[in-house]
Amino acid sequence: MDHASAGAAALLVFAFVLHAIRRESMNYALAGMAALALFAYLLYALLMPERF
After folding, report:
1. Nearest-5° Cα angle at 13, 10 to 17
2. Would you say the pTM of this structure is higher than 0.70?
3. Phi and psi, residue 27, nearest 5°
4. CA separation (Å) from 23 to 5, 16, 27, 42?
5. Cβ proximity of 33 and 14 under 8 Å
6. How far apart are CA 30 and CA 47, in angstroms?
């Protein structure tokens, strides 16, 4: 999976989650997505340190 298709998939998931949640839980959903993105970045950096 190249970077463009990974970004498009992430955008689709983001849009789906935003439509599926209620307005009052939006902050929790955004915080969860930010935490998930940070986790994915750190996992990528851990597994491929030569790119950093």
Report:
1. 140
2. no
3. -60, -40
4. 29, 14, 8, 29
5. yes
6. 26
Tell me the C-alpha to C-alpha distance, in Å, between residue 37 and each of 9, 12, 23, 32, 33: 13, 14, 21, 9, 6
Which residues constitute the domain of residue 40? 3-51
Look up residue 30 and give its two tokens: 């955004």
| C-alpha–C-alpha distance, residues 4 and 25, integer Å | 29
Residues 40/48, Cβ–Cβ less than 8 Å: no
Span 34-49, mean pLDDT?
A: 91
Place of tokens 């599926």: 20
In 3D space, the residue among 44, 16, 40, 12 whose CA is nearest the CA of residue 29 turns out to be 16
| pLDDT, mean over the chain | 79
